[in-house]
Structure prediction request, 85 residues.
Amino acid sequence: MSEKNSYAADLAGMLYLNRKGCNVNAEKAFKFFELGQKKNMEAKTNYALMLLSGNGCKQDLELGRKELIKAAVIGKKYRCNNEFG
Prediction:
């Protein structure tokens, strides 16, 4: 499911991270964000933030920084295209 649907992967990650209907499991949350981050800006942002904090994964400041910048660029392009057609 989540390999084909990046939005589902992001949602599953948020559920595991925030204990909504399941036990908190940061490692599972990270795995779902990792699956969805290639096609989903929100999942990429959450993936990057977890890398930066080391929550649910081995901390990787350099990769987290790079992925957060990529998410910001994607978000800016998305907002600009939607706002100005």
Observations:
- The domain at 6-84 is CATH 1.25.40.10 (Serine Threonine Protein Phosphatase 5, Tetratricopeptide repeat).
- The chain has one domain: 6-84.
- Residues 48 and 64 are 4 Å apart (CA to CA).
